Amino acid sequence: MTQLKVTAIGNSIGIILPKEVATRLRVYKGSALFVTETPRGIELTPYDPEFDKQVEAGRRAMQRYKNALRKLAE
Length: 74
Hints:
It is a single chain. This protein has helices spanning 19-25, 49-64, 66-73; strands at 6-9, 12-15, 34-38, 41-45. By secondary structure, it is α+β, with helices and mostly antiparallel strands. The protein has one domain (6-73). The strands form 2 sheets. A two-stranded antiparallel ribbon has the order 1-2. It has a two-stranded antiparallel sheet with strand order 3-4. Strand 1 (6-9) and strand 2 form a beta hairpin. The longest helix has 16 residues, at 49-64. The mean pLDDT is 88.
């Protein structure tokens, strides 16, 4: 377990990720991180949970309209 210290950054507060943590998250300077509240606490991830919902909706639509999409592809 890695403990992070909250520090002042200008008029805000923030945390500094150790290089090992940033590497495991696959984030770099300028990357976006998403905060999600879960039953176990706060989850910090580089993956947009809204994007997952959009992909799943697309999959359902493709499954539902597969015959029409197949015809359109001809």
